[in-house]
Amino acid sequence: MRKVLEIRDVDMVFTSGFGGRVRKTALRNMTLAVGGERPSITAIVGESGSGKTTLTRLLLGFQKPTSGTIRYGGKDVASMSRQELAVFRREVQAIFQDPFDAFNPFYRIDHPLLTPLRSFGLASSRREAYAIIERSLEAVGLRPAETLGKYPHELSGGQRQRVMIARALSVSPSIILADEPVSMVDASLRSTILELLHRLNRESGISLVYVTHDLTTAFQIAETIVVLYGGSIMEVGTAEEVIRNPRHPYSQALIAAVPSPDPDVPWNLDEEGDSADSVGASPIGCPFSTRCPHVMPVCRERTPALYRTDATRAAACFLHERPETATAAAIQEAASESTTDTMAAVA
Question: Which among 39, 171, 150 is positioned nearest to 94, based on CA atoms?
């Protein structure tokens, strides 16, 4: 039975200065869920400073939230026993942005592939470990004979990134958090790696959290898109709905900022407003209020809830205020059920 990784009612506040007088809210009132019996692909989208990295670190258990809980299989990660934490570390894996920095240049590529198998006791002998590694490398399209025994600098960026995926795959995870996995590779390799991740979801039953600033690749791979700004969820829904008909003004601005392939069409990117460093500084009101073209007084006085605009969509905007609210996790579940019904109808 595959477990669910949940983040419930989480706030993350960083303090600095004498006595912690300087406070910055990195995440607020965050509720998400990934994993479970039906493997899914959720994209976390937002610009720099939106809270994507903080959210990723919380989901991996690298940081503890200021308030709220991170739960895996119904258990609070912060209070897990050593044995339970080892299971969590094995079943929830990460693929990081830079495939070169992830490797120690003094070790051959075999070392980072063998280490998790030894740490988790997944191989009783060196021969068995290499058999697992070779299967994992072949699964990501690499030839073991041309990969093993080499140093990281002897592999291309695309090869190193696929080794990272093979490393995660070798321990049989349930969930993979992929943090900008294609931003450091050539454009020609992006579709290959995205297709590989999609295939792992489809054939191996692995749920993916795809963290990115790139709406194009998010639309290409994800079932559900969660749009972050200033540490808050602005909009959540199926990829089709969010990209083709965004409800929140920030989502609309992100879509409008995507360059057109037509060179005569200007790049509609508003450079005014807050910098990434100031995003999320205020704990009151909508974090997008200083840049929103539709701002109202209430936007600076109260924090909007996630208002359910459609069966599989919600937006945190007073333009869509209504009695029915929802959590991102509830929208994710509804979107997953909708996708399952659509696939069944097509079949």
Answer: 171
pLDDT, tens digit (0-9, with 9 covering 90-100), for 15-64:
887 777 778 888 988 999 999 888 899 999 998 889 999 999 999 999 99
User: What is the model's pLDDT at position 262?
Assistant: 56
DSSP letter at 51 equals S
Average pLDDT over residues 188-212: 89
Is the pTM for the entire model greater than 0.90? no
> Contact at 8 Å (CB) between 78 and 58?
no
Mean pLDDT estimate for the chain: 87
Give the number of other CB atoms < 10 A from CB of residue 270: 10
Cβ proximity of 315 and 245 under 8 Å: no
Helix, strand, or coil here: 276?
coil
Task: Quote the Cα angle for 48-51-44, to 5°.
Answer: 85
Helices (H), the chain: 52-59, 82-91, 110-119, 126-139, 144-147, 157-169, 187-204, 215-221, 239-244, 249-257, 297-301, 328-346
In sequence order, which residues have a C-beta less than 8 Å from that of residue 327 and are 6 or more positions away?
31, 306
